[in-house]
Every structure is written in structure tokens, then in C-alpha cells.
Specification:
By secondary structure, chain A is an alpha/beta fold. Chain A has helices at 37-48, 53-56, 110-121, 126-133, 137-143, 151-161, 168-280, 283-297, 302-322, 327-357, 371-398, 402-459, 494-512, 531-544, 558-561, and strands at 2-9, 18-21, 26-31, 69-75, 81-87, 92-99, 102-107, 134-136, 467-469, 476-480, 485-488, 520-523, 550-553, 568-572. Chain A is rod-shaped and about 225 Å long. The longest helix of chain B is centred in the first third of the chain and has 21 residues, at 24-44. In chain B, strands 4-3-2-1-11-12 form a six-stranded mixed beta sheet, with helices on one face.
């Protein structure tokens, strides 16, 4: 494939319409800095690939802000000529086929244009194309840096990868590292989760205990109440019982008193009666004395008479003694006792009256046997209640709410889940990237080896004829003719490395584009080269240009230094 | 002097907010604060009554500490001589063991316990309410309010039928028809159960106050209580914003996005200490578009009360395939994505594609 013509208008530096014609071989675009050399490259890109707003805006022209047009005319490997034209201001794009009779529109719809471009240029990703077809100044500079190892290998790798400075191997490593770090995080989260689970279990246990304890508390409280009620009742009964007992005792005392008084009254009444009897019977002792005296006068009769006299006197004397108290005194006493008795009877009546109230109190002392036990039990229950109450209060203030722990646990679980998904995704990414890497390396390393042969011969004047690439590591070896052995390219001289690098890039742009002979675009790559290296390199690309169209951009006037160096010289002013 | 009351409902006190992760507890407290703010408002506005249209609690047997809080707050109204009319809702139904029977509420609180609409009167205001039990009846069917001079208000927890309200799925509870509303003979009907402020636009004014505090992402934006006043036979309804936090769902089509910056713009625009944002990223931006939710979360989480970024992004249809590793990787992943029928697994693969390209292009 070959570029034929680039047209620009209102693009970057080029406000007015500008046409650049390309030829086979080397096309040298020269000019001072800021003359718009790199704008030419961007214009090629902006023709092939549709730039988005952000990408195109820097190229809008400040003194021609109505127009921004680019168009590239090119010839495919089959020999067909196309023109792809973009009008960025009006957002129009058009692909035409150029024939001898004129031009014919293929399509002006992106969706239909893109497959054509993919077929013609091999890539539909701008950056991949750039990374494959362009050789930048910075890349070649690295090639000359002695301190960087495996430069060619790295640069080959980035072309394979499809992005500048990209490395599938490194990307895979990074992705794997992410997974590893994430797994560590998950481990930590799992520990956290376990902790929460334990705390949850603990809180639930405590809560269960709490509800058990509060049930116990309720039970104790109820029992206490019940026992207290029973105790109160019993104590009340005991009191009634005691009161009744007291009353009964009082009644007994009163009864006794009454009995005594009755006896006294009886005694005094008898005495009084006796006194009057003695008075009537005073005659009897006197008769006895007289009879005794009379009998004593009879002599022997004295034996009977004298005792009679004595007995009579005795009786008489005795009666006199009894009647020492006067009769009126006794009567007073009796009256006094009688009134006292009346008083006592009244007292008893009161007691009886009181006792009547206790008619229904029919306890025996046995009924109060359990009173002391009950008192003890109530005391025990009281202290138990206080104990439970305190423990409940303390536990309640300490316990974490299971619901809240569960919320935290759920949050951790969610984090684990999210991270786990991320790991899965990263694992998938690294797995497929590894597959892609293996596939590409496997497919292209033998092809690169094979296709390099003729170009290597060409650029090295048949000094090197063969190279090998390690499919896995992409290490590059060339067969050194002196020793007939393959040696790593990093062992070679600067000049040889440059030759091999250009060879590989030429081959790779073709292979990766699907065997299209895509032009190689060199963006001022020899900037820092010394005379010797430059001369050698110019020779290399001159030889390459027989196989491939080359666009070389530089501010250095190579065309003055090297005769017949370029097929086409475009000088920008 | 006219009659004034505040209408609220569906506070769902004690609710667990699963979607808010570790902020659930804080938002539970927000709901309590909002309840306190409603009490403050009642006092400030010197209203005659507070009407609660059901689902004051999220469950019928809420924790003791929560009930105590509510009772304390209601006692503040008792001191100010403000009556509180409460009907139970489907979340806190009136049943044995429920908060309504287990606790002693202050004297100013009237809890409806009847199965049919029953009037409770204070000076100038008659509130018809009924207890919510598990029976789903049509509470306004064949109902006619008694004629009187008082401001006659219905307080019901239930759904309105023949009113198109597709956002609410629980439409089966306690159907109330527009016809029954207009025939009720009431002056105003205060409804609970639907979570958004809603004017039923019936002949008799009938409003859902909605939740005073957002509970899910479905209840976006500001939340209100209604200040309802009645004088000279005229009803005036004034919504008053009361919420602590603001729920928002923003769907963002990222198809034409080139950088994360565009997401940040949206996050910047909505930020706020009281904001609860769910940002749903949609569309199929190009593979050059990289976003790291973790990084975005780290940067913006503290600028929100709660932030959730949901990744519903897909890969574009027209992915470039070429012979490079990048192109081959895309080709392999695309084939795998196409094969995968399971939506979740397909999303895993799409993300894997984005991750692989992100690392390869050194954007990750």
C-alpha cells in the first residue's frame, strides 16, 4: 500500500488548502521547527481514523475557523485507488474510489466506511496503527542508550502488545498483583467478619441470658409477691389469734376473780349466819354448864358434869371469840364484794362482747408453724430479686445490640463480596490476556523469523541472514557468521542493532496489518545520531525503501547531506 | 379561631436500611431527629393536633428504648396541650403484644382501636380513624360522617385505587376509591401508606403527606409534613420541608465520556453532607474510558452522607479487533461475552475486558 496524496485545509498550521503528493520510496518532509511537520503526520491519522472532539480540537485553525478538512488518497496492494476525506467542521466523512473516469462514492456513513479502512490499513484502532506503523524519535533514542537492556525486545513487545510502551507480560503481572493484594484484603475482612460473627453470637447469647434472667426476675418477683401476701395474711391471723388468746386469758382471770369473790361472799354470809346461830344456842352451853354443875353436885356425876361444864365454857368462850368482829362489819364486806363481783361481771361481759368479734377466729397454735420459715423465705426472695435486678441493669448497659452488629457484619460481607467479584474479574482479565499473548507470540514469532530473512540480508549486505525470537520471552538472537552461532542482539554493535530493529519493524508492520505493505512513518528518529550511525541508518532505510514506502520527517536537511537519498522531497516553510 | 394540625405518616422508626450499609444506624437516628423536629414544628406553629397516619414504627413490637423516646417526645406535646391522633399501619398493626397495647401513652395521645371509622372529638376538630389490623377492608365504603360544625377529618392508612400510582407496589392494602372519598362527608382526608407527598385531587381535599424522612432511593428529594388549617369552612394545606437527609438516584449515560472527569462533575454537582446519592453509570463508553469506582469513592465518600456508585456500564459493540495482543485479547473476550447467557457473568467478562485493556494501555 502506498500514500498518494494528502490534502489539508484549515488543519493546524495549514489554514489554506495544501496538497502534498507522495511517491514510492522515501518521502522526505523537511523544514524548520514549527513549520508543521508533525501536523502532516496528524493529518494522515485524522484522515484514516475519525478523531473525536477532544482529539481534533487542537488542530482547528484560529484564522480559518469554518473549515477543517483532511483527505488522503492511497493505493491498495491490489492497485485500487481510494480517497478518504473528512470534513470535521461539518462532521462529514466520505470514502471514494478513484478510477480513470473519475471518483465514485463508496459511502459517507462511518459504519460502512470503517470496514474498508480496516481492510486497507489493517487496523481500526488509531493508537494501534500509530504504534505499529510509526517509529518515533524517542524510540530510536532508547535504542542508542547503552544503559537500557533488552531495548529491542521491549520495543518489539510493545508493537505486539498494540500500544506504546505496553507490555502484555507486565500488564498480566500487575493484574495478578492486584488479585493477590485483593485476596490479602479479603483475608483481613474475613477476620473482621469472624470477629463480628463472634460478637454477634456473644450479643445474642447475652440477649438470650438477659431474657432468661428477666424471666427469672419476673418469676422471683411474682413468687415474692405471693409469699409476701401469704406472710401478711398469716401475720394478721396470728395477731387475731393472739388477741383472742389474750381476751380468753383475761376472761379466765375475771372468772377466777369472780369465783374467789363468790367464795368470800359465801364465807362471810356463812359467818354471819353462824353468828346468829351462836346467839340462839348460848343457852345450850349454859344448860350444859348448869347441867354439869348440877351433876358435879351429885358427886360421881362430876365425872360427867365437869367435862360438860368445861365443854360448855369452851363453847361459850369460842363463840365469844368469833364474835369479836361485829356483825355490821361483815355485812359491809359482803356488800363490797358483791359490788366488786358486779364490776367483774361487767368486765366479763365486755370481754365476752369483744370475744364475740373473734367468733370466727378458730386457729390453733399449730396453724402458725410455718410463719418463721415463710419470713425467712421472703427475706431470701427479696435479696434474690435485688441481685437479679442489679445484674440485669449491668448486663443491659453492657450489651451490644445484635441488630447493630448484624448491620456491621452485613457491611463487611458486602465488601468481601464486592472484592471477590473484582478478583474474579481480574483473574479473567489476566487469563485472557495470557491467552492472547501466547496466541500472538505463537502465531507471529515464526512468521517474523521467516519474513525477516530477505530484509535482513538486504539491509546487512548479507552479513546476517537469520534471526530467532524466543516465543515466550521475545528475546532476539541473530546468527553470527563468525562463530556460526545465535547470539543475543544486545551483544551486537549499535549499527547492527539499528539494522535489526528496522528490519523487525518493517516485517512486523506488514504481519500485524495482515500482510499489507503499510508505509513506515519515521518521525525524526535519527535526531541524536552521530555521523557514522546516521550514514549507516540512511543506508538501511534506503534499502528498505525498495520494499516499502517510507515517510521520513526531520528538521535536518538530509537531502543536502545524502545524494539521491529521497524519491520525493517536501520542504515546509 | 380556626383549627390547625400537622399531618405526617410512615416514619418507620427503628427501620434497618440495608442499602445504606454501615450508615444504617445513623439514618435510623435521622428518622428520630425528624420526629423530634415534627414535635418542635407542632409547638412552634401552635397547632391543635398532630395526626399520624400509620407506620409510625417499622414493626409492631419496637425496642423499649425507641418507644420511650417517642413517648417522651409526645409528652412534650402534652405539656403544650397538643392532641395526638394515631392510627396504626400495616407495619405496626394494632394487635395483641403491639406497642399500642403494651405501653401507656401520655393522656394527650388518642390511639384509634376500632375496626370501623370512629370519631374522636376535641374542640373544633373531629378525627375519624380506625385501627389497622390484618384485615384489608375498604375503610371508606358506605361511610358518611355525622353532620356537625367541627372540622371533620379522616385519618386512614391505606392505598388509593383507581389512582394511577405505579411507583407504589403495595396497592392492595386497604383500597380507598375516589368515589368513596367524595361521598364521605368529611372536610379533609389525611392518608398514610404511600411514601411520597401526593395530592389526590379529589373534590374533598385528600393528601398523602409521604414520609418525612427518605427511607429508600425510591423516595428521592425533599420530604414534607403537611400543615393543614381550617377556618371559615375553608381547608388550607401547606407542605413544610422537614427531612434531615436527601435521597437521590442519578443515572448517568457515559457512552460519550472520555475521562473520569465527567463522572466527577456529576459527583461534584450533587455533593452535600445530607445527601444520599446512588449514581448509576450506564451506557457503553469506549475502552479508552477508564474509571475506578474505588478511587471515586475514596475521593467523594466524605462529601456525602452516603454515596453508592453502581456500575452498569457495558462495552461498546464496535470494538476494534486486530492482530496485536490487544486486538486478540479483545477478540477473545468478545467471543466469551457473546457466549455468556448469564447477565451477571457477562458483566464480569465485560469488566475483565475493560480491566485488561486498562492495564495494557497503562491507564490502570
Amino acid at each position: 500500500m502506498e500514500f498518494i496524496k494528502l490534502e489539508l485545509e484549515g488543519f493546524g498550521k495549514f489554514a489554506k488548502k495544501k496538497t502534498i503528493n507522495f511517491k514510492k520510496g522515501i518521502n522526505f518532509i523537511g523544514g524548520f521547527n514549527e513549520a508543521g511537520k508533525s501536523t502532516i503526520l496528524e493529518a494522515i491519522m485524522a484522515s484514516i481514523f475519525k478523531f473525536n472532539k477532544r482529539e481534533i480540537e487542537p488542530f482547528f485553525c484560529w484564522n480559518n475557523h469554518h473549515i477543517c478538512k483532511v483527505a488522503l488518497t492511497y493505493k491498495t496492494d491490489k492497485g485500487e485507488i481510494f480517497r478518504i476525506a473528512s470534513d470535521y467542521k461539518n462532521n462529514r466523512r466520505r470514502l471514494e474510489k478513484i478510477t480513470k473516469s473519475g471518483s465514485k462514492e463508496i459511502s459517507s456513513i462511518d459504519k460502512n466506511i470503517n470496514p474498508y479502512l480496516k481492510e486497507h490499513f489493517g487496523f481500526d484502532d488509531k493508537k494501534v496503527f500509530e504504534n505499529t506503523a510509526f517509529i518515533r524519535q524517542s524510540q530510536i533514542a532508547i535504542l542508542g542508550d547503552r544503559t537500557i537492556k533488552n531495548k529491542i525486545k521491549d520495543m518489539i513487545e510493545e508493537v505486539f502488545a498494540g500500544r506504546a510502551k505496553a507490555s502484555a507480560t507486565k500488564a498480566i503481572q500487575k493484574i495478578k498483583k492486584y488479585s493477590k493484594d485483593a485476596s490479602k484484603k479479603i483475608e483481613k475482612l474475613k477476620e473482621e467478619k469472624l470477629e463480628f460473627e463472634e460478637r454477634l453470637q456473644h450479643a445474642q447469647d447475652i440477649k438470650a441470658n438477659l431474657s432468661r434472667d428477666s424471666a427469672k426476675f419476673e418469676k422471683v418477683s411474682k413468687k415474692l409477691e405471693e409469699k409476701q401476701r401469704k406472710l401478711e395474711k398469716l401475720e394478721k391471723n396470728k395477731k387475731l389469734f393472739n388477741e383472742k388468746q389474750d381476751l380468753l386469758k383475761d376472761r379466765e382471770i375475771v372468772d377466777d376473780k369472780i369465783k374467789n369473790i363468790d367464795e368470800l361472799i359465801e364465807t362471810y354470809t356463812k359467818e354471819k349466819e353462824e353468828k346468829s346461830t351462836v346467839k340462839q344456842n348460848k343457852t345450850l352451853p349454859i344448860i350444859l354448864i348448869i347441867a354439869g354443875a348440877l351433876l358435879s353436885f351429885i358427886g360421881i356425876g362430876a365425872i360427867v358434869g365437869i367435862p360438860l361444864i368445861i365443854y360448855g365454857i369452851y363453847k361459850l368462850v369460842k363463840k365469844s371469840e368469833i364474835h369479836e368482829r361485829p356483825k355490821s362489819d361483815i355485812t359491809g364486806k359482803i356488800a363490797k364484794y358483791r359490788s366488786k363481783k358486779k364490776e367483774l361481771i361487767n368486765q366479763k361481759a365486755v370481754l365476752e362482747e369483744q370475744l364475740r368479734k373473734y367468733k370466727l377466729v378458730n386457729f390453733t397454735i399449730d396453724d402458725f408453724d410455718e410463719l418463721n420459715d415463710l419470713k425467712e423465705e421472703v427475706e431470701k426472695l427479696k435479696s434474690k430479686k435485688i441481685e437479679l435486678q442489679t445484674s440485669l441493669k449491668t448486663t443491659t448497659s453492657l450489651v451490644e445490640s445484635p441488630e447493630e452488629i448484624k448491620e456491621k457484619l452485613d457491611a463487611v460481607k458486602e465488601k468481601i463480596k464486592e472484592l471477590d467479584i473484582k478478583i474474579q474479574e481480574h483473574n479473567l482479565a489476566s487469563k485472557f490476556l495470557e491467552m492472547a499473548e501466547t496466541l500472538v507470540h505463537h502465531k507471529f514469532t515464526p512468521a517474523v523469523e521467516k519474513d525477516s530473512k530477505p530484509i535482513l540480508k538486504l539491509v546487512t549486505n548479507e552479513h546476517y541472514n537469520e534471526l530467532k525470537i524466543d516465543e515466550e520471552t521475545l528475546d532476539i538472537y541473530v546468527k553470527a557468521p563468525e562463530i556460526k552461532k545465535f547470539i543475543n542482539v544486545s551483544m551486537l554493535s549499535q549499527g547492527a542493532r539499528d539494522q535489526i530493529y528496522f528490519t523487525l519493524r518493517t516485517v512486523m508492520v506488514n504481519l500485524l496489518s495482515g500482510n499489507l505493505n503499510i508505509p513506515l512513518i519515521l518521525d525524526d528518529p535519527f535526531h541524536n545520531f552521530d555521523e557514522v550511525r546516521l550514514k549507516k541508518t540512511i543506508n538501511v532505510i534506503k534499502k528498505l525503501s525498495k520494499e516499502k514506502q517510507i515517510i521520513l520527517i526531520s528538521h535536518r536537511p538530509y537531502h543536502n547531506e545524502f545524494k539521491n537519498f529521497a524519491a520525493n522531497i517536501i520542504e515546509l516553510k | 379561631m380556626g383549627i390547625k394540625f400537622i399531618q405526617t405518616s410512615d416514619l418507620h422508626l427503628g427501620m434497618t436500611f440495608k442499602s445504606l450499609g454501615d450508615k444504617s444506624k445513623l439514618h435510623r437516628l435521622d428518622c428520630q431527629n425528624t420526629f423530634s423536629k415534627i414535635i418542635d414544628l407542632c409547638i412552634k406553629e401552635k397547632v391543635n393536633a398532630l395526626l399520624i397516619g400509620g407506620d409510625l414504627f417499622d414493626i409492631a413490637e419496637p425496642p423499649k428504648s425507641l418507644v420511650k423516646f417517642v413517648i417522651n417526645e409526645l409528652e412534650r406535646l402534652e405539656k403544650e396541650n397538643v392532641k395526638v391522633f394515631i392510627v396504626s399501619g400495616n407495619h405496626d398493626p394494632y394487635k395483641k403484644g403491639s406497642v399500642w397495647l403494651e405501653y401507656k401513652f401520655p393522656k394527650n395521645v388518642i390511639i384509634f382501636d376500632s375496626l370501623e371509622l370512629e370519631p374522636k372529638r376535641i374542640d373544633g376538630l373531629t378525627v375519624y380513624g380506625l385501627a389497622y389490623t390484618n384485615d384489608t377492608k375498604q375503610p371508606l365504603k358506605n361511610f358518611k360522617a355525622e353532620k356537625e360544625d367541627n372540622f371533620k377529618v379522616g385519618l386512614i392508612h391505606g392505598s388509593t385505587t383507581n389512582i394511577n400510582w405505579e411507583e407504589e407496589p403495595e396497592a392492595g392494602y386497604r383500597p380507598i376509591t375516589k368515589e368513596d372519598i367524595n361521598k364521605s362527608g368529611l372536610d379533609y382526608i389525611a392518608l398514610g401508606h404511600f411514601h411520597d407527598l401526593l395530592d389526590l385531587k379529589t373534590k374533598i381535599p385528600c393528601y398523602y403527606s409521604g414520609t418525612p424522612e427518605g427511607l429508600t432511593f425510591k423516595n428521592g428529594g425533599d420530604r414534607f409534613v403537611l400543615l393543614v388549617s381550617y377556618s371559615n369552612k375553608k381547608v388550607n394545606i401547606k407542605p413544610i420541608r422537614i427531612n434531615e437527609r436527601e435521597f437521590h438516584t442519578v443515572e448517568l449515560d457515559c457512552t460519550n465520556f472520555e475521562t473520569e472527569q465527567e463522572i466527577k462533575k456529576v459527583l461534584e454537582k450533587h455533593k452535600g453532607e445530607n445527601k444520599i446519592l446512588r449514581l448509576v453509570l450506564k451506557g457503553s463508553p469506549s475502552l479508552d474510558f477508564t474509571f475506578d469506582i474505588d478511587m471515586l469513592m475514596r475521593e467523594y465518600e466524605s462529601k456525602y452522607f452516603f454515596l453508592k456508585i453502581v456500575d452498569n456500564i457495558h462495552v461498546p459493540e464496535d470494538l476494534t479487533e486486530d492482530e496485536t495482543i490487544r486486538g486478540t485479547f479483545i477478540k477473545l473476550m468478545k467471543a466469551e461475552i457473546k457466549k455468556e447467557k448469564d447477565k451477571e457473568k457477562r458483566k464480569r467478562l465485560e469488566n475483565a475486558l475493560r480491566i485488561g485493556i486498562g492495564y495494557l494501555d497503562k491507564r490502570l
